[in-house]
Amino acid sequence: FYLVITQEVLLKASEHVCRNLRTELGGFLLGNHYRCSANDLNYVIIDQLSVAEMAETTEVSFVPTQTSWGRLNSDLSGKLKGKHLLGWYHSHPGLDVFLSQYDLSLHKERFNEPWMTALVVEPEKHLGGFFCWRNGRLNPHMPVDFYELMGHSNRNTVVAWNNHTGLDTAMNIQPYLCP
Predict the structure, then answer these.
(1) 163 with 133: CB under 8 angstroms?
(2) pLDDT tens-digit profile of 104-162?
(3) Minimal CA–CA distance to 146: which of 122, 172, 120, 126?
(4) What are the φ/ψ torsions at residue 128 (nearest 5 degrees)?
(5) What average pLDDT does the segment 48-56 reach?
(6) What pTM was computed for the model?
(7) In angstroms, rounded to a whole number, what is the distance separating the alpha carbons of residues 103 and 63?
(8) Of 18, 43, 99, 104, which is most buried by a Cβ count within 10 Å?
(9) Average pLDDT of the chain, as a whole number
């Protein structure tokens, strides 16, 4: 599966995890998965997120509570009808970008479909990365490539991670990074 995420979701997730630099914060990534019949490519477009307001969090763990899962299910059958759970995001304040043992357990239990992903953001060092199933495996230390869905009149990336360099394939140049 190719991973496509809108600028709006990237900005909202980054803004959310910057609210607290002492404990992990996170939520759910929503959208749809598709298959292009012309070339048989599979891809997901993440275009919504849902903050997990209720979660068990520490400096090194994030686990959504049953209340957060219930709210998510309610949203998916209500105001977000037609969207699907595609993954989750959370922060690693003061750490690095990887999936911990806690993260791996949660991902394997709740996000085990081949198109599901985890976004990890380290807000202080400006690091980030997506982790996806590849060939039935999940590498906790190797973020995968993704595509940023640009706005109609905007060719500037909103990804300002120090461990990521975007490439504007239409212009064949590195895009301008927001400060």
Answers:
(1) no
(2) 999 999 999 999 999 999 999 999 999 999 988 999 999 999 999 987 777 778 887 87
(3) 120
(4) -165, 165
(5) 92
(6) 0.90
(7) 8
(8) 99
(9) 89
Six-digit token string for 26: 């996170």
Closest alpha carbon to 54 in 39, 64, 40: 64
Enter the DSSP assignment of 27. E
Q: DSSP label at 69?
A: H
Are 131 and 143 in contact by the 8 Å Cβ rule? The answer is: yes
pLDDT value, residue 157: 81
Burial 1-25 (b: 16+ CB within 10 A, else e): bbbbbbbebbebbbebbeeeeeebb
Residue 57 pairs in a beta bridge with 62
What does each C-alpha distance from 65 to 54, 68, 93, 96, 127 come to in angstroms? 6, 5, 20, 24, 26
Specify burial of residue 75 (Cβ count, 10 A radius: 0-12, 13-18, 19+).
middle
What 108-111 contacts at long range (C-beta under 8 Å, 24+ apart), as own/partner pairs, is 108/138, 111/85, 111/87
Phi–psi pair at 90, nearest 5 degrees = -165, 165
**pLDDT at 6 (0 to 100):** 93
pLDDT in tens, 2-19: 999 999 999 999 999 999
CA 91 to chain centre: 10
